[in-house]
Amino acid sequence: MTEDLSPAERYAAARIRAAEEATALAPFRAMYEFELDPFQIEACQSLEAGKGVLVAAPTGSGKTIVGEFAVHLALQQGRKCFYTTPIKALSNQKYTDLAKRYGPEKVGLLTGDNSVNSEAPVVVMTTEVLRNMLYAGSQSLLGLGYVVMDEVHYLSDRFRGAVWEEVIIHLPESVTLVSLSATVSNAEEFGDWLDTVRGDTDVIVSEERPVPLWQHVMAGRRMYDLFEEETDHGGRGPGRREVNPELARLARMENQRTYNPKDRRRGKMVREADRERERRQRTRIWTPGRPEVIERLDAEGLLPAITFIFSRAACEAAVQQCMYAGLRLNNDEARARVREIVEERTSAIPSEDLHVLGYYEWLEGLERGIAAHHAGMLPTFKEVVEELFVRGLVKAVFATETLALGINMPARSVVLEKLVKWNGEQHADITPGEYTQLTGRAGRRGIDVEGHAVVLWQRGMDPVGLAGLAGTRTYPLRSSFKPSYNMAVNLVQQFGRHRSRELLETSFAQFQADKSVVGISRQVQKNEEGLEGYREGMTCHLGDFEEYARMRRDLKDRETELAKQGAAQRRAAAATSLEKLKPGDVIHVPTGKFAGLALVLDPGIPAGRSNGHRGFEHHDGPRPLVLTAERQVKRLASMDFPVPVEPLERMRIPKSFNPRSPQSRRDLASALRTKAGHIEPERHRRNRAAAADDREIARLRTELRAHPCHGCDEREDHARWAERYHRLQRDTRQLERRIEGRTNTIARTFDRIVALLTELDYLRADEVTEHGKRLARLYGELDLLASECLRDGVWEGLSPAELAACVSALVYEARQSDDAVAPKVPAGKAKAALGEMVHIWGRLDALEEEFKINQAEGVGQREPDLGFAWAAHQWASDRTLDEVLREAEMPAGDFVRWTKQVIDVLGQIAAAAPREGSTVAKNARRAVDALLRGVVAYSSVG
């Protein structure tokens, strides 16, 4: 093609090539066997130009290439690069990748569990580690040129998201920030904020998946496409996405419950036909079993697959079900290779622990190509599953949603069993963002031509709703930033109170709140213009019509108030009269659908009893069960009795009376008409209206008639304008209150925290006291409680095992609260210390309430959880893994995770505890040594 160019054009092209080859990007691109995508090249060019970048792209699109280019630039420039991730597993994986590429001498790892070559020019770490380094003013920050924040959309996480914003706000200005995010709908807004706090930042958004994704629903023996053919262009194009009409028809068939056992009008033959039709329908629609799903995917060439099940126990059960079904996905060669890799990776685990950990059952599943993956597994086991899956030796993984978070385990297919999950508080529908994150694992770049997302049919499924989830490619990023006690003392120590307050007002949380206020402020301005016009319309030449209109409103409000009081009194009188009714009373129902003569079968008074009608409870006063003169048995409500009711007569109800029997009802209704049909009910006389004798109303009416505007010929015209003025003024005040509630919210919370810390002598104006300096070294949800325990000497004199038990209460949080069973705790000093910790928490809780620090808003100290104290004490006392796990009734992975968190906090306490006259620091270090053994000490790297 170059011969077709003119000499000038060839010269220009040569200059462009030369310029490109002179950049740092050229040798970097040569390191990869594939061509970079346009969004990757654009982001890398922005980085080389000295700008920060926000890259928002789908899962699996290769946005980490941009992070790796930041590492490349740092090494080329002789500067440092920190690569942060939200979870340790992802840090471990990234460390391994970078160490392979650049050599282990240039790459380090810091995760709280592991510290490998921490002074290397490239260090992979969890985001919390970097936050702690920033607050501590670590020497490791010297020479830092780049920070990569992988999975930066994690700042939406309500428990840990604040850490991302703390890092972004506090990084030195000289550091270039690389933010990598899943596709979010407000990337530009987030980019605007980054531009504000970090300087020049380019936003690069790519919504195109590198591998097209096809959506399916598996129902019965068939797998249906979610969308009609040739409308979604393989998940790439902008074509219309119409729901597959076959799926819509299935949903309609299932929803049409043809057989209704309550419908007694049908004949037996019709009902039998309906039952048969329903049976045939059910043979077409059912939720396939887990082994059946894997076999179907295998038959259609859609393995390897990840099946997301939102329950750890269900993941383990799924593996067992597949094994019982005789499923084998590996040949003999693959089985041998699996055993070889597993034995090599688990060689450090003592043989006596293997049985406790369920090793042999786990290995059998792996040899068949089947595995579970969840947070309850031993970290080593999870890492082996990940490695075997990537190598293609495990072909079916049953995982909880934690696997979707960044870990490099792409599959050909992703299966979702249900579209509902437990979010920590309740069962809730998964969001479009979660659906995108989960299904984003489907389709391996460079391996698969297309990826497949399969949702299993569930009763009541709405295909249109599912299409909405699948079709919503983006979701908004929402800040979860909240100040904490540790954050407050660290900020005041570094910047003073005033500057700290200003820094917090630069958070993304406040940026979003202030931005949302802009539209409200605009509406307030419009309303104020409208109010001016209305004020002109109600102007009266005789006097102040605004004052006159206010008097009219006061009169109307008083009349309304008295009318409500009268209605309430009538309802109370009616309820009292209903409470006096007895079975056998004949009454006249004054109004409603069943007005007329009725016999009381049950007065319906005792609260919480069903009285013959299933599921009924008395929440709104008596609801008598009656037989009407028209033979109907009905439960009446208080609205049927706007006035008190008096019995007209008494009747005996036969013991043999059956309200379900038409004959019984007919006979008793006939007796009712005979007994009382001729009695005319007494008409209820309404009492004199309270307004007629009310002095306040009389006064207001007198003043109203005496007002100059009362005699105006255009009075009612003015009054209409005044009413509009009043309504708009009320709306405007509500908007102003919303603005007031949203602006400076973060700073106001900070002020309350600072006030409480001042009360406890952690702060004195801009000075951080010795107590405050100790708090600055304690990170975690219960930072203030830990500091108060050190201050009061609660842990003095405890053995290392007893101290481990007490510290566990600061980190552990049961997955499901069980208030009915008191947790087992060690006896003696540990029990007394734990009791004192709960007592101190109670004091802090009362103080937080006094200072209006609200735990519901994510600020403040939750109650310490003693549920892990016994396990921590036993493990630190050198008990075997079998004994500890059996008594704790806890999966090995959970035990290891909580123990490592205890070790982390013990390390903080060792650093923060007084050096002189205290045993806590020494015993905290001893406790760390006692806990860091066996399964807890198995290191996945280094």
Describe the structure.
- The protein has 942 residues and is α/β, with parallel strands linked by helices.
- The protein has 35 helices and 24 strands.
- Strand 20 and strand 21 form a beta hairpin.
- Residues 231-239, 258-267 and 607-619 have low confidence and may be disordered.
Structural class: alpha/beta
Kindly report the average pLDDT value.
Answer: 82
Count of alpha and pi helical runs: 35
The radius of gyration computed from the alpha-carbon positions, rounded to a whole number of angstroms, is 36 Å
Characterize the largest beta sheet: strand count, sense, and whether it forms a barrel: 8 strands, mixed
Q: What portion of the residues fall into strands of 2 or more residues? A: 5-15%
Distance between the termini: 52 Å
Shape: globular
Helix proportion: 40-55%
Write the topology of this structure.
Layout: H1 7-21, H2 25-30, H3 38-48, E1 52-56, H4 64-77, E2 80-85, H5 88-102, E3 107-110, E4 115-116, E5 122-126, H6 127-136, E6 144-149, H7 162-170, E7 176-181, H8 187-198, E8 201-205, E9 213-219, E10 222-225, H9 233-236, H10 245-255, H11 268-284, H12 290-299, E11 305-308, H13 312-324, H14 332-345, H15 351-356, H16 359-367, E12 370-373, H17 379-390, E13 396-399, E14 413-416, E15 420-422, E16 427-429, H18 432-439, E17 451-456, H19 463-471, H20 485-504, H21 508-537, H22 545-579, E18 585-589, E19 596-602, E20 625-628, E21 633-635, E22 649-650, H23 662-676, H24 695-706, H25 715-742, H26 745-759, E23 763-764, E24 767-768, H27 770-775, H28 783-791, H29 800-811, H30 829-850, H31 869-876, H32 881-888, H33 892-912, H34 920-931, H35 934-937
Parallel strand pairs: 1-7, 1-8, 2-5, 2-6, 3-5, 6-7, 9-17, 11-13, 11-14, 12-13, 14-17
Antiparallel strand pairs: 3-4, 9-10, 15-16, 18-19, 18-22, 19-20, 20-21, 23-24
